[in-house]
């Protein structure tokens, strides 16, 4: 049982799921400064994002089964400790290679927060209420990418790029203390065989053989790839291409995040009446239309900030409709291996997101076309996956 009220639990789950976006969005305004300080280019510094995302995804393949075997709480605490130590390594990194390595370890620790936060929701609320709860959590979690770039831009301007990692280390300490003091175990049915390689592979085969799970997974993959293309490309588009300051870049990024918040708010409000499948349908069509518009404007020229901001706002709103509902549909049929189901979903989505970030990193210095094309491709992929999914 959980020994704290549901409202306090919701706050804790939001804090846990915020660890992922905070670890990426907090230092986004500092990326150009990091590139200059460590003598690299946009593609080089992009590795600190893409490697983080790959590690975040790969780590989930272990975190989920570990929590199915040993419980959510101990795995969370160990993950927070790994995150704290690797974040301190980021603070003192003097080369790109060291920073990339520290970011990889940071990802292994950070993935425990979002994956196990979602698993806790599934443990406590079951399939019927999890979509609504995950939408509420996603809405509140969206405050992290809304506020983190603003604060990160201010810290970078005032004290340099290392200050963003100092702030993340402080957050990790507070989060570790909160989990240790407030959260009791929610996994009431630990699986003694969850960590056996044969069992793990069998679980993953079972999940991938399920058309409902596979459809939800692929829909989320397209949406996440589009989202991460924007996350990774926006600092260079806003700062290097349009000449914004780090603080202004944080504000522009935050304005786009309001679209995501509105999407998740609408999802939470209407999930009972409309259902996850219908909300996903609205999201993939809106996202595909706005993504294609973004790509078309990138090629139409002349370039203007509004030509990126306005269609991207529509894309983020659509992603807010898609992601919580796709997650809920994917986890609905697997109460006894929610950790494995959440971790596999996260792994595949993060892998595609990392690939999208690498594509944008190699083309973003030449304008907005790479960003527009990658976002459009992600949303069209989500639409195609939806058209072949039982959820349609």
UniProtKB/TrEMBL annotation:
Keyword list, A-Z: Cell inner membrane, Cell membrane, Membrane, Transmembrane, Transmembrane helix, Transport
Q: Which PROSITE patterns match?
A: MFS (PS50850), SUGAR_TRANSPORT_1 (PS00216)
Q: InterPro entries from the entry?
A: Efflux_drug-R_Bcr/CmlA, MFS, MFS_dom, MFS_trans_sf, Sugar_transporter_CS
Q: Which GO terms describe its cellular component?
A: plasma membrane
What are its GO biological-process terms?
Answer: xenobiotic detoxification by transmembrane export across the plasma membrane
Question: Does Cell membrane count among this protein's keywords?
Answer: yes
> The Major facilitator superfamily (MFS) profile domain covers which part of the protein?
1-392
Keyword Repressor on entry: no
Annotated GO molecular function terms are: xenobiotic transmembrane transporter activity
Cellular location of this protein? Cell inner membrane; Cell membrane
Segments traversing the membrane: 47-63, 75-98, 104-121, 133-155, 161-183, 215-237, 249-267, 279-300, 312-334, 341-361, 367-386
What Pfam family does this protein match (any one)? Answer: MFS_1
Membrane topology, as annotated, equals: Multi-pass membrane protein
Assigned protein family:
Belongs to the major facilitator superfamily. Bcr/CmlA family.
Instruction: Report the protein name in the record.
Output: Bcr/CflA family efflux transporter
Question: Native species of this protein?
Answer: Thauera phenylacetica B4P
Q: What is the lineage of its organism?
A: Bacteria, Pseudomonadati, Pseudomonadota, Betaproteobacteria, Rhodocyclales
């Amino acid at each position: 049982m959980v020994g704290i009220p549901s409202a306090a639990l919701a706050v804790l789950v939001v804090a846990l799921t915020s660890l992922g976006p905070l670890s990426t969005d907090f230092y986004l305004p500092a990326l150009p400064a990091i590139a200059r300080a460590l003598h690299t280019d946009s593609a080089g510094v992009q590795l600190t994002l893409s490697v983080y995302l790959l590690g975040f995804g790969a780590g989930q393949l272990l975190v989920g089964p570990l929590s199915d075997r040993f419980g959510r709480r101990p795995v969370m605490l160990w993950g927070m400790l790994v995150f704290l130590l690797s974040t301190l390594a980021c603070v003192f990194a003097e080369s790109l290679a060291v920073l990339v390595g520290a970011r990889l370890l940071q990802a292994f620790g950070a993935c425990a927060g979002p994956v196990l936060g979602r698993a806790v929701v599934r443990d406590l609320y079951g399939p019927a209420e999890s979509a609504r709860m995950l939408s509420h959590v996603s809405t509140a979690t969206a405050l992290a990418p809304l506020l983190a770039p603003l604060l990160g831009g201010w810290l970078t301007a005032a004290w340099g790029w290392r200050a963003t990692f100092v702030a993340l280390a402080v957050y990790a300490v507070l989060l570790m203390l909160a989990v240790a003091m407030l959260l009791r175990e929610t996994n009431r049915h630990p699986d003694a065989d969850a960590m056996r390689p044969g069992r793990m592979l069998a679980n993953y085969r079972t999940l991938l053989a399920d058309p409902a799970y596979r459809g939800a997974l692929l829909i989320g993959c397209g949406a996440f790839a589009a989202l991460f293309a924007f996350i990774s490309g926006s600092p260079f588009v806003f700062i290097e291409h349009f000449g914004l300051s780090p603080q202004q870049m944080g504000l522009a990024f935050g304005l786009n995040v309001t679209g995501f918040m509105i999407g998740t708010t609408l999802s939470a409000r209407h999930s009972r009446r409309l259902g996850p499948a219908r909300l996903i349908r609205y999201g993939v069509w809106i996202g595909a239309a706005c993504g294609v518009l973004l790509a078309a404007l990138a090629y139409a020229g002349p370039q203007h900030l509004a030509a990126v901001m306005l269609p991207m706002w529509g894309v983020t709103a659509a992603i807010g409709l898609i992601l919580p509902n796709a997650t809920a549909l994917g986890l609905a049929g697997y109460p006894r291996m929610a950790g494995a189901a959440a971790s596999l979903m996260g792994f595949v989505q993060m892998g595609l997101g990392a690939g999208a970030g690498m594509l944008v990193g190699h083309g973003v210095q030449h304008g907005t076309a790479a960003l527009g094309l990658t976002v459009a491709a992600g949303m069209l992929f989500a639409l195609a996956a939806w058209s072949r999914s039982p959820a349609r």
